Amino acid sequence: MGRYLIKRLLMIFPMLIGISLITFVVIHLAPGEPVEMQVSMSPKISAATREKLREYYGLNKPLHVQYGIWVSHLARLDFGRSFGSDHRPVTEKIAERIPVTLSLNVIALILEFCLAIPIGILAATHRDTLVDRSISVFVFLGFAVPTFWLALLCMYLFGVKLNWLPISGLHSMGSDKLPFFGWLWDLAKHLILPVGIATFGSLAGLSRYMRSSMLEVLSQDYITTARAKGVKERLVIYKHALKNAMLPVITLLGFSLPGLIGGSVIFETIFAIPGMGQLFYQGVMARDYPLVMGILIIGAFLTLLGNLLADLSYAFADPRIRHGRE
Amino acid sequence: MRSSTPFMQFWMRFKENRFSVAGLAVIAVLFLISFAAPLLTQYRPETINAWHVLLPPSSAHWFGTDELGRDVLTRIIYGARVSLKVGFVAVGISVAIGVVVGLLSGFYGGWTDSILMRLVDIMLCFPTFFLILAVIAMLEPSINYIMMIIGLTSWTGVARLVRAEVLSLKSRDFVLAARVLGASDARIIFRHILPNALSPVLVSATLGVAGAILTESALSFLGIGVQPPTPSWGNILTSGKDYIEFAWWLSLYPGLAILVTVLSYNLVGEGIRDALDPRRR
User: What domains appear along chain A, each with residue ranges and CATH number?
Assistant: First the structure.
């Protein structure tokens, strides 16, 4: 176990280098520079000023030098300053937004697992019955429905038609003057739609996965043995089968992170939530290189961390790995 | 029985699943619609009509009109062209890259394998949608770039699949026999291994088309995909969002088109998987 842990932890470094390299290449291969963007907005800027701007941003140096400078700053957790009009450090801008996106995604993730696992078990234990079939229909619809469209429909239904829920932002005007519980209730109402839709978006895949994992386990000999011994079906499912069926599902937890973070662009733009996705979208539109690269790196790093945690918890849960059979 | 050719055997099994056959039929209809678009509607997708702005569905405009008085049904019909093109080209690119990477990685092993698979691991760390968004917005948004970038960011799954297949195939007797007979690497890879590794790729490609269509619609919805006035299901939904309080039809129908299309590809993919899976024969 210790050896495995060290091996996995050491892998982070080459991965981080790879992540930084891809981020840098992706952003710099694209034609068009932030300077061009600023110049096109105020065409009076002369060629000399333009050169000065490029020098200021370090864009006149060869690419590998730019990469070197950038990485050496990264190593000190310095992501540079935003090209935007406020020129604030990128780390500061991201730090304000991360809690929003992360907590939204964590709530969605928890809900998703709480729903998907029972649904998957239900489908597996009622295989080929009406229950299983209806769940299948739901799963296929869940795979196919564009989440941003679902968000639009829910906005229309619950926000415009029924006027039950707010459809943008996280707080109502003047909610900061409310007492704590009133404030909390206001926040919760704003969260219902985005969190609900984010949960629904990934529910289908996970419950399908849980179903097949459960079926796989239920077909094994030790389950047949348990049943033959006369163990009650409930016990067979929840005591004997569930633990093993959950194992592969744990790894999915890590893998679902990039999807969730990526999806936040759409949710946060639709529902006007001030999170990382919205910041990224704005950064991309303004060609704010340091900001875009910073968010890409942090997104990838969070995923790397998520995968690592998933792998480790898998290893911890599986005695074959825990007791180091190498 | 005449069902002796592999394709006939495949078809016999495929058509057992009614949903998959229905999905295939829908896809066929979509192809027809996008080729015959001008014959199906009396309107042009780009013609602006200031007198018919935001009309609800009626017998003249089945799906209503948009904020510029354009017929929504017509725009959805022409939008089918975009989604078909994006789906197939993007998946073509991703399958080509994925197959090459998977073959090299699985066949040669060692350093080649380590480097390529670490690359896959690193690619999988990026929230794909962020990566696509970053590149597209730095370039001029256009349908060609979208297809390329979706292709370039979605090959990792295929690469892993092909690699796994190659690993299990390369020590089989028929491959060893070919090697003993003096076949070159290229001949072994393309003649003996690749054809046997393709069936999971076919399934993943079909599902990939669905994914590419969803991604394109999301990008167009955000305004960095297919640019107006060219209609795409995603960019019609952008107007749907802007006019959600007045015109539900602008949001409902294009979304349904995406839903039905993506559902059909997924059902066909599922059908192909079941038909090819040796355990279910």
Answer: 95-325 (1.10.3720.10)
